[in-house]
Specification:
The complex is a heterodimer.
Chain A (H helix, E strand, L loop, with lengths): L1 H19 L4 H22 L25 H31 L4 H6 L15
Helix pairs in contact in A: 1-2, 2-3
Chain B lengths: L1 H20 L4 H29 L2 E4 L10 E4 L1 H24 L2 H24 L3 H20 L4 H32 L4 H7 L6 H19 L7 H5 L5 H25 L5 H24 L4 H22 L2 H32 L10 H4 L1 H15 L5 H15 L3 H27 L15 H20 L2 H15 L1 H9 L11
Antiparallel strand pairs in B: 1-2
Classes of the chains: A mainly alpha, B mainly alpha.
Chain lengths: 127, 504
């Protein structure tokens, strides 16, 4: 199980890095999403996967009786998923704004776009 | 004591809530915001004095004993940096109130600003790597929104680079956390300091250390990972640029200092030599980038990169004197760099542009502002008797003592080129006559709100320069604490660390 998950994390990382190296910003963001899933899997495997009882302490005891699964990585992953979701949602909106402003999502074309807004009625940035 | 440790996080949070609730009343909103910033400064001052007299302070949230619960720790380094955060938070906020357009101020600037301060304060207090990750994300998401607030073309363009690269950096950080947990079964910094030397696979530990170096290196903008910074920092309003320039990269430097003194000291020969090279290239490439720019904000952005090199150099030399220098440098740099951005903004208010060729005649019109520019500018270049001189002197001396002559040479050259590009700003914006087709405004309204924080920060720079001893003593004590992690470990874990039954 550990080996399978490790291979899967590696596969996701490879695909994520491949997408990150593309010119399209949207594909780069998809790469980030794949990478983030790979990292979540790494966290999961780091806590070791084993077929054990749920980590619940029975009444009257201060420690679980038998070997239990490690709940900490799952708590970490849950936090990481929530944070990652928020960041990716923001990044999507930002890319949408970039597309609406510059009419392109190609990183090379975007780099050549002028930063000043010549025809815009927008006032210059405040100091 | 518990309260003092939590206040630097709670005050900005409460302020953010208060300003969100008073969105419809701009005056009330400003009052809450300023009050919150004053409160943060006071609380951090209290924390510093408590840490100074009582040693390392820590609190276990929810009474879960370390290493199982969430730990907040303040040693001298954290406390000093928190005071600087409080000072910058207040100074830049005053400037922002005087300079920001109503649209930006009304669309959530104050709330985001205080949440950013909360993220920075939390990162300095975190005693747990995952907790540190969460605070990094808090300050990251607020910095994203602050960066694009207002939706200018330049802002959107700069933010795309900034957001994508920082997302990758966060993932690196998280992956490193996962691998470290797999190796040791703990994420508490103090517990890790005990467990890491016992890990047999030392090669794996170094690999994880390199992942941390990449993650924090991107945040701190070191060579070759800094390209997002000059692409983004000149785009938002100056108040936002100033607080970013002062605080955000320094959180990365703080994290580097923390993990490479407390955790990854097993293979100093490899890791810290790498840091040394990184520091040298960062110093040189940063100043060379600055020389090629003609926009005030872009010049200053490249100088952030170059100055980060000096701090990393202090960490890389890894002697008590060098660490002292690095900490001194961080404090000096936050004040000076923030102030330079503020002066740049004031020049823009008067001259109407950031482009050097369109500026001029500021010395004739505003000699006072010219002096206020010279203080941080010459301090950045390292001229006596300003704060930058002592910062550079300590680092250079540490370099000579450890016989890292190449790095010392790089630092001296970088300082010289810094002086050249500061002179360039001086010549173009202040000294040369105003171009014929341009005119200077009188800065109204609210020029006083722009000048006051600049005066205060320049006074801080002068004070550190003329009376450096208190800061040196503080930095010396934090360097001693950093090089003897047993004090940190004992303070957090208690004398008898509990045995972990949860080891995977």
């Amino acid at each position: 199980m550990d080996v399978l998950l490790a291979l899967l994390a590696g596969l996701l990382t490879a695909a994520g890095v491949y997408l990150l190296l593309q010119r399209s910003l949207l594909r780069m963001l998809f790469g980030v999403i794949l990478l983030s899933n790979a990292v979540n899997l790494i966290l999961f495997v780091a806590g070791r996967t084993l077929r054990a009882a749920p980590p619940i302490v029975p009444d009257g005891l201060t420690a679980p009786a038998a070997a239990v699964a490690n709940p900490l990585p799952q708590a970490l992953i849950l936090t990481a998923i929530v944070i990652g979701f928020g960041l990716v949602a923001f990044a999507f909106v930002l890319l949408f704004r970039a597309y609406a402003t510059f009419n392109t999502l190609d990183a090379d074309t975007l780099a050549t776009m002028p930063e000043d807004s010549p025809a815009d009625d927008e006032p210059p940035t405040a100091d | 004591m518990t309260l003092l440790l939590v206040l630097p996080i709670l005050i900005p949070l409460a302020t953010a809530v208060a300003v969100l609730l008073s969105r419809r009343a701009p005056r009330l909103q400003r009052a809450w915001s300023l009050l919150g910033a004053v409160g943060l400064l006071a609380a951090t001052g209290g924390l510093l004095s408590a840490v100074w007299t009582g040693g390392i302070q820590h609190v276990q949230l929810g009474q879960w004993p370390a290493p199982f619960g969430i730990t907040l720790v303040a040693d001298v380094l954290s406390a000093v940096l928190l005071v600087v955060v409080g000072l910058m938070g207040l100074a830049v906020l005053v400037y922002a109130v005087g300079s920001l357009d109503t649209a930006r101020e009304q669309s959530g600037f104050h709330a985001l600003y205080h949440l950013l301060l909360m993220g920075v304060a939390g990162a300095f207090l975190a005693g747990d790597l995952f907790n540190l990750y969460v605070w990094f994300e808090v300050l990251l998401i607020t910095s994203f929104v602050l960066l694009v607030l207002g939706n200018d073309r330049a802002q959107v363009k700069g933010a795309v680079t900034y957001v994508l690269i920082n997302l990758v950096a966060s993932l690196c950080f998280l992956a490193a956390i996962g691998l470290l947990y797999g190796l040791t079964g703990t994420l508490n910094l103090a517990d890790l300091a005990v467990r890491l030397p016992e890990v047999e696979a030392s090669g794996l530990v170094t690999t994880v250390a390199m992942l941390f170096l990449i993650a924090f290196g991107i945040k701190a903008a070191v060579f070759p990972l800094f390209f997002w910074l000059p692409a983004a920092y000149h785009t938002p309003p100056v108040a936002v640029s100033a607080i970013f320039a002062g605080l955000l990269t320094k959180v990365g430097v703080y994290a580097l200092i923390r993990v490479f003194t407390l955790l990854f000291t097993q293979d100093v020969g490899y890791t810290h030599t790498l840091l040394l090279w990184v520091a040298m290239f960062t110093m040189i490439t940063g100043v060379l980038g600055a020389v090629s720019q003609t926009d005030v904000r872009k010049i200053l952005s490249f100088h952030i990169v170059s100055q980060i090199g000096y701090m990393v150099l202090g960490l890389a030399l890894f002697t008590p004197l060098a660490l002292l220098g690095a900490i001194f440098y961080v404090v000096h740099h936050i004040v000076v760099k923030t102030n330079l951005f503020l002066v740049g903004g004031a020049a823009h208010r008067l001259g109407g542009d950031f482009e050097l060729k369109n500026l001029g005649g500021l010395y004739r019109a505003r000699p006072g502002l010219a002096i206020l520019f010279l203080i941080p500018a010459l301090s950045l270049a390292g001229l006596p008797p300003l704060s930058g001189f002592w910062a550079k002197l300590i680092i250079l001396r540490a370099g000579v003592e450890t016989e890292a002559y190449l790095a010392v040479a790089a630092a001296v050259v970088a300082g010289l080129i810094t002086l050249i590009s500061m002179t360039k700003i001086w010549n173009e914006a202040f000294w040369k006559p105003l171009p014929a087709d341009r005119s200077l405004s009188d800065g109204a309204p609210s020029m006083a709100a722009l000048i006051t924080p600049i005066v205060v920060l320049a006074a801080v720079t002068l004070t550190i320069g003329l009376y450096a001893e208190p800061l040196v003593v503080l930095a010396e004590r934090s360097a001693t604490e950093l090089l003897n992690p047993t004090g940190y470990v004992q303070a957090v874990l208690g004398t008898a660390p509990p045995t972990a039954e949860m080891a995977p």
